[in-house]
Protein backbone atom coordinates (compact mmCIF):
# COMPACT_ATOMS: atom_id res chain seq x y z
CA UNK A 1 0.00 0.00 0.00
CA UNK A 2 1.24 3.48 -0.79
CA UNK A 3 2.17 5.54 2.27
CA UNK A 4 -0.36 8.23 1.30
CA UNK A 5 -3.16 5.62 1.23
CA UNK A 6 -2.08 4.31 4.62
CA UNK A 7 -1.98 7.85 6.06
CA UNK A 8 -5.54 8.32 4.80
CA UNK A 9 -6.61 5.21 6.72
CA UNK A 10 -5.02 6.61 9.89
CA UNK A 11 -6.83 9.94 9.40
CA UNK A 12 -10.14 8.13 8.80
CA UNK A 13 -9.59 6.10 11.97
CA UNK A 14 -9.01 9.28 13.96
CA UNK A 15 -11.98 11.07 12.42
CA UNK A 16 -14.14 8.00 13.17
CA UNK A 17 -13.64 8.45 16.90
CA UNK A 18 -16.46 10.05 18.88
CA UNK A 19 -16.37 13.86 18.72
CA UNK A 20 -16.00 14.16 22.50
CA UNK A 21 -12.81 12.07 22.40
CA UNK A 22 -11.29 14.03 19.50
CA UNK A 23 -12.09 17.35 21.19
CA UNK A 24 -10.31 16.28 24.39
CA UNK A 25 -7.09 15.34 22.64
CA UNK A 26 -4.52 18.00 23.38
CA UNK A 27 -0.84 18.32 22.66
CA UNK A 28 -0.57 15.10 20.66
CA UNK A 29 0.66 14.41 17.12
CA UNK A 30 -0.26 11.28 15.17
CA UNK A 31 2.39 10.15 12.70
CA UNK A 32 3.01 7.24 10.36
CA UNK A 33 6.38 5.52 10.09
CA UNK A 34 7.33 2.45 8.10
CA UNK A 35 8.80 0.65 11.10
CA UNK A 36 9.94 1.39 14.65
CA UNK A 37 13.44 2.69 15.26
CA UNK A 38 15.97 0.70 17.26
CA UNK A 39 15.43 3.18 20.12
CA UNK A 40 11.65 2.65 20.07
CA UNK A 41 12.12 -1.11 20.12
CA UNK A 42 14.55 -0.78 23.02
CA UNK A 43 12.26 1.52 25.03
CA UNK A 44 9.30 -0.82 24.64
CA UNK A 45 11.27 -3.99 25.26
CA UNK A 46 10.29 -5.29 21.84
CA UNK A 47 12.82 -7.67 20.38
CA UNK A 48 13.93 -7.09 16.82
CA UNK A 49 11.61 -9.04 14.58
CA UNK A 50 8.67 -8.84 16.96
CA UNK A 51 5.82 -6.76 15.70
CA UNK A 52 5.12 -3.26 17.02
CA UNK A 53 1.98 -1.83 15.42
CA UNK A 54 1.75 1.48 17.22
CA UNK A 55 3.41 3.45 19.99
CA UNK A 56 2.35 6.23 22.35
CA UNK A 57 5.17 8.40 23.64
CA UNK A 58 4.34 11.19 26.05
CA UNK A 59 2.68 12.17 29.29
CA UNK A 60 -0.87 10.80 29.62
CA UNK A 61 -3.58 13.34 30.36
CA UNK A 62 -4.15 11.71 33.75
CA UNK A 63 -0.59 12.69 34.76
CA UNK A 64 -0.92 16.34 33.76
CA UNK A 65 -0.68 18.62 36.75
CA UNK A 66 -0.90 22.24 37.67
CA UNK A 67 1.46 24.33 35.59
CA UNK A 68 1.78 21.57 33.00
CA UNK A 69 2.37 23.19 29.68
CA UNK A 70 4.99 24.29 27.23
CA UNK A 71 6.02 20.69 26.64
CA UNK A 72 6.60 19.12 23.27
CA UNK A 73 3.54 17.31 21.92
CA UNK A 74 2.96 13.70 22.81
CA UNK A 75 3.45 11.42 19.85
CA UNK A 76 1.44 8.51 18.57
CA UNK A 77 3.22 6.57 15.85
CA UNK A 78 1.42 4.05 13.67
CA UNK A 79 3.79 1.58 11.99
CA UNK A 80 2.70 0.77 8.46
CA UNK A 81 4.98 -2.20 7.83
CA UNK A 82 4.00 -3.97 11.05
CA UNK A 83 0.30 -3.53 10.38
CA UNK A 84 0.60 -4.69 6.78
CA UNK A 85 2.59 -7.75 7.88
CA UNK A 86 0.19 -8.55 10.73
CA UNK A 87 -3.03 -8.15 8.73
CA UNK A 88 -4.44 -11.42 7.45
CA UNK A 89 -5.41 -9.78 4.16
CA UNK A 90 -5.42 -6.36 2.52
CA UNK A 91 -9.08 -6.04 3.48
CA UNK A 92 -8.23 -6.28 7.18
CA UNK A 93 -5.63 -3.48 7.13
CA UNK A 94 -8.31 -0.80 7.57
CA UNK A 95 -9.82 -2.52 10.63
CA UNK A 96 -6.40 -3.10 12.14
CA UNK A 97 -5.42 0.57 11.64
CA UNK A 98 -8.66 1.62 13.33
CA UNK A 99 -7.96 -0.64 16.32
CA UNK A 100 -4.32 0.45 16.67
CA UNK A 101 -5.21 4.16 16.51
CA UNK A 102 -7.93 3.61 19.14
CA UNK A 103 -5.50 1.65 21.34
CA UNK A 104 -2.76 4.29 21.24
CA UNK A 105 -5.21 7.13 21.89
CA UNK A 106 -6.41 5.23 24.96
CA UNK A 107 -2.82 5.43 26.24
CA UNK A 108 -2.95 9.23 25.74
CA UNK A 109 -5.90 9.25 28.13
CA UNK A 110 -3.95 7.29 30.73
CA UNK A 111 -5.10 3.73 30.17
CA UNK A 112 -2.61 0.94 30.80
CA UNK A 113 -2.41 -2.19 28.63
CA UNK A 114 -4.60 -3.98 31.19
CA UNK A 115 -7.10 -1.13 31.24
CA UNK A 116 -7.27 -1.10 27.45
CA UNK A 117 -7.95 -4.85 27.38
CA UNK A 118 -10.88 -4.30 29.74
CA UNK A 119 -12.17 -1.44 27.55
CA UNK A 120 -11.85 -3.58 24.42
CA UNK A 121 -14.16 -6.19 25.92
CA UNK A 122 -16.85 -3.49 26.31
CA UNK A 123 -16.17 -1.78 22.98
CA UNK A 124 -18.89 -2.21 20.36
CA UNK A 125 -17.71 -3.89 17.17
CA UNK A 126 -19.14 -3.27 13.68
CATH structural architecture: 2-Layer Sandwich
Walk across the major sheet and give the strand order.
1-3-2
With helices defined by DSSP (H or I, 4 residues minimum), what is the helix count?
6
**Termini, distance in Å?**
24 Å
Percentage of residues assigned to helices: 40-55%
- N-to-C series of helices and strands: HHEHEEHHH
Provide an overview of this structure.
The chain is α+β, with helices and mostly antiparallel strands and 126 residues long. It has one domain (3-62, 70-118): Zincin-like, CATH 3.30.2010.20. It has 6 helices and 3 strands; from the N terminus they run H-H-E-H-E-E-H-H-H. It has helices at residues 3-15, 19-24, 38-44, 80-86, 90-108, 113-122, and strands at residues 28-33, 54-57, 74-79. A 3-stranded mixed beta sheet has the order 1-3-2. Helix 1 (3-15) packs across helix 5 (90-108). The longest helix is centred in the C-terminal third of the chain and has 19 residues, at 90-108. It is globular and about 35 Å long. The model has no long low-confidence stretch (mean pLDDT 86).
SSE order and pairing:
Elements: H1 3-15, H2 19-24, E1 28-33, H3 38-44, E2 54-57, E3 74-79, H4 80-86, H5 90-108, H6 113-122
Parallel strand pairs: 1-3
Antiparallel strand pairs: 2-3
List keywords for this structure.
126 residues; alpha+beta; Zincin-like; three-stranded mixed beta sheet; 6 helices
Quick overview of this protein structure:
This protein is of the alpha+beta class and 126 residues long.
Amino acid sequence: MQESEFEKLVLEAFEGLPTEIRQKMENVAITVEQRPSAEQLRKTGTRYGNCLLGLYEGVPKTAWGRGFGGNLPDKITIFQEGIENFAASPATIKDLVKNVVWHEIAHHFGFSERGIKLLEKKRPRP
